[in-house]
Write a structure and sequence with these properties.
The chain is mainly beta. It has a single domain, classed as Sandwich (Immunoglobulin-like). It contains no helices and eight strands. The strands form two sheets. A four-stranded mixed sheet has the order 4-1-7-8, with no helix packed on it. Strands 3-2-5-6 form a four-stranded antiparallel sheet, with no helix packed on it. A hairpin with a 2-residue loop joins β2 and β3. It is elongated.
Length: about 120
Amino acid sequence: MADDDLTDPSADPPAGPRTGIIISGHHSPMAWILVFTKLTVEIDGRPVVGPWRKHFIPTEPGDHHIDVFFNYIGQPRCGEASVDVQVQEGSAVALAYRASSLMTSPGRLEIRSKRL
């Protein structure tokens, strides 16, 4: 699946208008060990631990600070990246996270689109 493919039905919010964030986490195939880790998405300081694949996280509408990272061999918050987003009522903001090739370097977090 391409990084910018945001049409994965499993990542879409359930039927009806839902407010939240769609996050898609990626890492290099050379970093295969990350398959055994979970991605942490912190929304305004509240952590949500989940898979690297694309998934929906419901939020309240408004401004949110997003931090994304993973734990690696006892090191918390590896590959940390942050972004501020504004979520509108009944829409979802799509984010793409890419871990750095060097586990302790910052990752990259981008806003891909806003979906109604």
